[in-house]
Amino acid sequence: MASPLEQFAIQNLSAPLFSIGGHHIAVTNSAVFMMASVVAASGLLMAGASKGAMVPGRIQAMSELFYEFIANMIRDNVGSAGKKYFPFIFSLFIFTLFGNVLGMIPYGFTFTSHIAVTFFMAMIVFLGVTLIGLFKHGLHFFSLFFPHGAPLFTAPILIPIELVSYLSRPISLSVRLFANMTVGHVLLKVLAGFVVALGIFGVVPLAVLVAITALELLVAVLQAYIFTILCCIYLNDALHLH
Amino acid sequence: MLCVGPALAADAEHSSGMPQFNINHFPTQVFWLVVCFAVLYFLMAKLVLPRIGSIIETRERAILGDLEAAQKANDAARAAAIEQDKTLTAARTEASGIIRQSAEAAAAQTAAKMHEIGGKLGADIAAAEQRIAEQRTSVLAGLEQMAGDIAQSVFSKVAGRPADPAALTAKVAAAVKGESR
């Protein structure tokens, strides 16, 4: 029986196309699913946006739902200053969502279950948000690390705590998504192994497997939402400090 | 780790644990992530989002416009209703005025006619009364004459000689006068 971790293996599906800094870049299963996410997401959204009907059809209603969902999220968590970052946050949500959900397809690949991907995304968000805060507030940005109104003598304790919590944001953000996706898929694989191993009694883990699959679909959507809303909250911190 | 493909077999040599922690695959993933995300971002920012945004905005504007038009129509209808009410009230007052006027005129006419008829009837009654009085006097005069004649013949038959006409007349006149009282 295959290891439950086998599903996460990166496989080269082509010969290396070129190399950057000594690293050979080939088309991998991860890359295929990233491309599939981009194609599926933009295909769906463009199909939804193409008609522009006054009374939307199903696909258009879905596209508008995505749009208004993220627009409301930004308006509620960041305010009007966040409007500029709407396309980025929208893309982040759609990319993560489609990556998570497409990964649920049997024999598929979940690129969001890789720390390299989630950490890079989290790092981009973290660095971008920090730079936005620095550009907007200058050195005043560092008041973020000392809560307004706290007694001055608490500074030696508070500032390191705030600094560590701030610096750990990309780690928590990326590990949350990576760990959730990885654990879910491992669990599915292990349960599927039981189904095969138990023969006729495999119907019991099969029933559990169905339930867990539904749960994992929920987790896939929820984690995309959490990833996006945390980015919004970080952006809000940078734009408005505390 | 049991592997199925030759590609995987090559990979498995690098790491014994989770494929996620195989550093060798990081650059490839990051490269494709950057490429795919950039394409997605470009498509969203330049094509999809402005279009969906404009669709939603157009719809909101259409709904607002419709609501405004409905409000305007409603106001117009209300104003027309008030106007109609006013016209109706004016017409009603006018009508009741006309009714009152014509009633008064009719009453006045009736009164005048009654008066005229009353006058005529009074005159007729007066004339009739006068005629009755005349007839009565003439009848009374005749009665006196007749009483005189009867008294003359009664006296001559009883006394065997004609009565003194002057004395008889005076007696009859006194008797008639007493009778007619």
Order of H and E elements of chain B: HHH
> Major sheet of chain A, described briefly?
2 strands, antiparallel
State the helical fraction of chain B. Answer: over 70%
Q: How large is the radius of gyration of chain B?
A: 67 Å
Return the structural class of chain B. Answer: mainly alpha
Counting H and I runs of at least 4 residues, what is the number of helices of chain A? 7
Strand content of chain B: under 5%
How much strand content do the residues of chain A show? under 5%
Radius of gyration of chain A: 21 Å
* Global shape of chain A: globular
Mean pLDDT over all positions of chain B? 86
Strands of chain B, total number: 0
User: Any idea how many domains of chain B?
Assistant: 1
Question: Which pair of chains has the greatest number of interface residues, and how are they split between the two chains?
Answer: A-B, 55 and 45 residues
What does this structure look like?
The complex is a heterodimer of chains A (242) and B (181). Chain A is an all-alpha fold. Chain A has one domain. Chain A has helices spanning 29-51, 58-77, 86-102, 115-137, 155-167, 169-197, 203-240; strands at 18-20, 23-25. A two-stranded antiparallel ribbon of chain A has the order 1-2. In chain A, a hairpin with a 2-residue loop joins β1 and β2 (23-25). In chain A, α3 runs antiparallel to α7 (203-240), α4 runs antiparallel to α6 (169-197) and α4 (115-137) runs parallel beside α7 (203-240). The longest helix of chain A is centred in the C-terminal third of the chain and has 38 residues, at 203-240. Chain A is globular and about 70 Å long. The N and C termini of chain A lie far apart (53 Å). Chain B is mostly helical and 181 residues long. Chain B has one domain (6-136). In chain B, 87% of the residues lie in helices and 0% in strands. Chain B has 3 helices and no strands. Chain B has helices at 6-12, 26-159, 165-180. The radius of gyration of chain B is 67 Å and the shape is rod-shaped. The model of chain B is unreliable at 1-15 (pLDDT under 50). The interface between A and B is large, with 55 and 45 residues.
